[in-house]
Amino acid sequence: MNIEKAKKIFEKYVENYNLDDDKIKLKYDHSLRVCELCKKIALYLKLPKEDVEIAEMIGLLHDFGRFEQIKIYDTFDDRISVDHAVLGVQLLEEFDIDQFVEDEEVQKLVKKAILLHNKTFIEDNLTEREILFAKIIRDADKIDIYYIWTNLEVKTVDAKINDKIYHRLIKCKIDYEERKNDLDFYLLLIGLVYDINFNWSYHYLNEKKYVNLFIDRVINKNKKNYFKLSKIKLVIKKYMKKREKLC
Ligand SMILES: [Fe+2]
After folding, report:
1. Ligand 1 center to residue 223 CA distance, Å?
2. Which residues are found with C-beta within 5 Å of the ion, ligand 1?
3. Any residues with CB less than 8 A from the CB of 48 and at least 6 apart, and which?
4. Span from the CA of 227 to the centroid of ligand 1 (angstroms)
5. CA 68 to CA 66: how far, in whole Å?
6. Which helix (H) or strand (E) covers residue 24, if one does?
7. How many angstroms is it from 85 CA to the middle of ligand 1?
8. What is the CA(247)–ligand 1 centre distance, in A?
9. In the chain, what are the helix, strand and coil shares in percent, each to the nearest 5?
10. How many whole angstroms separate alpha carbon 71 and alpha carbon 149?
11. What distance in angstroms lies between residue 235's CA and the mean position of ligand 1's atoms?
C-alpha cells in the first residue's frame, strides 16, 4: 500500500469531475484533509505502520461516492439522493479497488469503514478492527466538518429553538431529531461533539476552537435564542474540556 501513489490515483479519478464546481472541490480538499487527520489519530493511538496507512487510505477514500452524487443529484443530502457511502463502495469496486489496496482483508476493512462513516450509530456485531477504523474515520470526518463550517455561511433563523433538541443537547446527548429548519441543522452539527471517540480529537478541536467559533456564529445569527444557545455553548465547552483531559 502506498499512500502517495493512492493520492495521485485519487486525484486522477477526481479529474473526471468538474473541479470548478465548488462542491466537487470542497469534497476533494476534504478527502485530503481527512486523510491527514486519520493519520494523526492513528499515530496518537500508536498503531503499527501498516494500520496507520490503512487509516490514511480510509480517510482518502471515505467520500469516494460524493463526486458521483454531486454530478447526478447536485446535493450532499443523502436523504433526497443516495447513501454516498454505499455508492462510494460500489464505485470503488467498479473502479477496481486493487489500484488503491491489494490485500483483500484490508480492502474489506476499508470498505466497511467507508460504509460506517456516515451512519447514525455503528452496529454491535463488528470486529475490534472494524470498530477501531470506524471510530478513526468518524472522528476525522467530524473534525473536518467543523473546520469546513468555519468558512461557510451561517443563516439567520427566525424560529424559536426546538425545545426537545435543546434539552437533549444540554444533557450532553446527540440529537438526530428531524430537521425542520437551518437552526435544527446547526444544532445537529453542534451535537456531533457528543459522538466523538478519542480524547485526541477533543484536544485538537479545543486547540483549533472550531466548535466554539461555530456556536458563536450560530448565536450571532439567532439572537432570539441567545440564552438557550449560550447555555448549550457553556455545556459543550465544559464537556469538551473534560473529554480532552485524558489525552
Ligand atoms: Fe462522507
Report:
1. 31
2. 63, 118
3. none
4. 33
5. 6
6. helix 22-44
7. 6
8. 26
9. 70, 0, 30
10. 22
11. 27
CATH class of 3-149: mainly alpha
Distance 224 CA to ligand 1 centre (A): 32
Q: How far is the CA of 63 from the centre of ligand 1 (A)?
A: 5
Distance 201 CA to ligand 1 centre (A): 18
pLDDT in tens, the chain (247 residues): 899 999 999 999 999 999 999 999 999 999 999 999 999 999 999 999 999 999 999 999 999 999 999 999 999 999 899 999 999 999 999 998 999 999 999 999 999 999 999 998 888 899 999 999 999 999 999 999 999 998 899 999 888 999 999 999 999 998 777 788 999 999 999 999 999 999 999 999 999 999 999 999 999 998 889 999 999 999 999 999 999 986 5
Work out whether the CA dihedral 139, 143, 149, 151 comes out positive or negative: negative
Nearest Cα neighbor of 126 from 118, 134, 138, 136 is 134
Ligand 1 center–CA 84 separation, angstroms: 7
Q: How far is the CA of 226 from the centre of ligand 1 (A)?
A: 31
* 222's grid cell: 439567532
Domains of the chain by residue range? 3-149, 163-244
Task: Determine if the pTM surpasses 0.85.
Answer: yes
* Residue that has been written with the C-alpha cell 480510509 in this structure: 58
The count of C-alpha atoms lying within 13 angstroms of the C-alpha of 177, restricted to the half-sphere facing its C-beta, is: 24
CA 11 to centroid of ligand 1, rounded, Å? 17
Longest dimension (CA), the chain: 55
101 Cα–ligand 1 center, Å: 20
